[in-house]
Amino acid sequence: MRSLGVAVAYPDPGVADELVHAVEAEADLYLALDPARAAVVLAGEEALSTLGEHPADAAVVGVAADRDAIAVVARAALRCGAHEIVLWPQDRAMLRSIVRDAATRARIGAGRAEGRIVAVAGARGGVGTTTVAAMLARAVAESVVVDLDPVGAGLSGFLSDGAEPTLAAVVAAVDDLDPAALSAAMAGHAAGRAICAEPREAAPTKQQAARMLALLRATVPVAVIDAGRAADDAAMAAISLADQTICVCTPDVASIRGARALIAAAGRGFPVVLNRSARMRLSAKDVARVVGAPPVAVIPDDPAIRRAGEAGRLPSRGAARRAIERLAGLILAEASDGS
Q1: Quick one: pLDDT band at residue 114, thresholds 50, 70, 90?
Q2: What is the CATH number of the domain that holds 197?
Q3: How is residue 301 annotated by DSSP?
């Protein structure tokens, strides 16, 4: 987790000193001496009226040093668009979480949330999109896998014991959620964490999907989206907004043609993954001839996937797992290169 620079703009030297020490006591916060370079500004009433001097995309947290000042600070915070209010010193224990949540909301508003979205779409049904998405998420630390294929809702089959699908609840409240609430809605899963759909539940709208993706960017380093066959507006929104989209196909004529059709429908090229590759079937060269480029990854037909899936697990070893881990490494390398 990256450190955040916090500037303190409070007129009372004693309160300002307490705020500085509180910031410096947190391992992932540091004192920004130049407010223009701060990610978050802790500001008293007077400073809230002069925040035009600070960067427009910085988070602003109003500070009230006593209960009688809360109403005055709240009005000043509303006028300048502050993201939160702290009652000092009563909120001392929550300062870190308040600061980080405010910074996240500022990044969302400024379009600067840093998480990466990877959409996994299937050339047709039954090509293994859900398993590839789940295994890809498992291979990336601190990621989450999200089910935007409510028709199949295959990710729910890998939920941990006692965990429930939460996509419907997230979608219903998506306009009011913040990153902390979204994190709380992530359920235990064989891939690590997941937001799963119930079978046959209504798909999110395009707008709901876009809002959820924005929250995911601000909440996790990488979110892997199972877009299924990209058969609705939410799945197509995920494909259009993702940093990277991967199309999964199998070595058969209908699937490879489906990959070409999906790429054409999306209006932009993206890599193809050949899943369940085996001898005496169509090859990576055949895929390249149809879609115009060789597969970015070839995942062998691996019985370990079927055996694990029947038990609600992901395979702990095997050729398919190694191939998907290499694919995850390629995606992370592209992210670090800014591509």
Answers
A1: confident
A2: 3.40.50.300
A3: P
Hey, what amino acid is at 83? H
Nearest to 239 by CA among 101, 319, 336, 119: 119
Report CA dihedral (294, 299, 117, 233) to the nearest 10 degrees: 80
- Tell me what the mean pLDDT of segment 308-328 comes to: 94
**Does one domain contain both 163 and 79?**
no
Number of structural domains in the chain: 2
Please give the single-letter amino acid code of residue 192.
G
For residue 17, which of 71, 69, 53, 63 has the smallest C-alpha distance? 63
Residues 72 and 219 in one domain: no
Domain end residue (candidates: 70, 90, 110) = 110
Q: What is the pLDDT of residue 333?
A: 81
pLDDT of residue 152: 84
Q: Are 275 and 240 in the same domain?
A: yes
Q: What is the pLDDT of residue 304?
A: 93
